[in-house]
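Lab notebook page, bench 4
Experiment: in silico fold of construct C2
Operator: M.H.
Input chain length: 197 residues
Purpose: comparison with the prior construct
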Amino acid sequence: MKKAMNWLKSIRPLKVLTVFFAGIFLFLTQACGDPGVATQPPQPDDQPAYTKRYDPTQDYPLSSPEGGMNNFSDVDPRAKLDEKAANDRADALAKNSQKNIDQKGIDSPEQYGRNYKQGTPLGERVKNLGEDVGSSAEEVRKGVVKGTQRGIENIKDNTQNAAEGVTKNVQRGAEDAGKNVQRTAEDAGNAVKSAVD
């Protein structure tokens, strides 16, 4: 109890009043100050705030549904020309294949088989296949020979460069050793000279 009484006696009324007025000043400046921070940002005069909203039932020209994933095109809109070119190419290939079918008069797979059998004889097909394999083997042999020659030339060049490098390193080492011996002799001469003096 004595401690509490001593503490109350040590508090000065001026300190209490200072803290009270500081609290009231802080409260009033926050409560009655400029509310500019919490307001909505200014809008242009001709456009009221938040009036234009997205309407999912309306058709917007920039992103009309075309049927891809999520009802939009799966192709980048910047690549419309590429898409058109791919479609044109596919149409041309389809027309070409139809023309080939019409020219050869194929009505069924059996007829295709008969046409194939009536084409190039088996012996000639085997001969052509053998020639293709032979020419491929010849090309592989030539490639291996060229690669081997190039590798041998590279080895010669590398060996010659290594020999030149070793020679230069030996010469530099000999020069450095000679300079070190000369410096050591000069240092020894200077040491003798300073000891005599």
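Observations: The helical segments are 2-10, 13-31, 80-104, 109-118, 122-196. The chain has five helices and no strands.
Next step: discuss at group meeting.
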